[in-house]
Amino acid sequence: MLDAFSRAVVTADASTSCIGGDSLNKLKGFISEGNKRLDAVNAISSNASCIVSDAVAGMICENTGLIQAGGNCYPNRRMAACLRDGEIVLRYITYALLSGDSSVLDDRCLNGLKETYIALGVPAGSTVRAVQIMKAASLAHINSTNSQAQAGNRYKKNEMIQGDCSAITSEAASYFDRVISALS
Ligand SMILES: CCC1=C(C)/C(=C/C2=NC(=C\c3[nH]c(/C=C4\NC(=O)[C@H](C)[C@H]4CC)c(C)c3CCC(=O)O)/C(CCC(=O)O)=C2C)NC1=O
Asked: What global pTM score does this model have?
């Protein structure tokens, strides 16, 4: 498992070079922009149960066969497993976002997951749909663009200093996309 710093070391060592130039500048940015990263992680973590339950509910609304006999969210045992998997995936995405590197997500969550899902008959398309909804909700929370209209009485405003969050948003998006491509 690597983070932005150990990744720079491993990459430099692989080419027997010193750490400098571009990779040092990237690490400087990692530090100077660090509070945005912490806020982004907090925006997801502190809304995780809402993000997960909303995504799984949305996935089921679009495909109600999932909760009927023969569906992979039926009976309740499978529904619980599905919600738990949503939380696992989102938690590993927050770890990757915190460390600035996808290896924790790749190695500890995604490695072999597609094969596990195929063996269990968990439908890939539905899983991808749930991850897409989690992605949209998480990016909205990072940017504080979540609205009462979308969230109803569960609406929670994130108190954050407003600034340019485009870089951390696209980095977060890339981890969701990683999950989607690993399962597709
Ligand atoms: C550390 C990382 C980690 C991951 C990622 C993980 C996933 C994981 N999900 C599983 C099951 C499952 N996963 C789902 C998920 C879903 N079904 C659907 O229809 C939806 C599309 C989707 C939710 C979005 C379901 C229903 C099961 C139970 C399947 C079964 O037992 O028939 C299983 C089989 C064992 C079990 O049931 O607990 C594993 C290993 N376990 C881990 O330890």
From this structure: 0.95
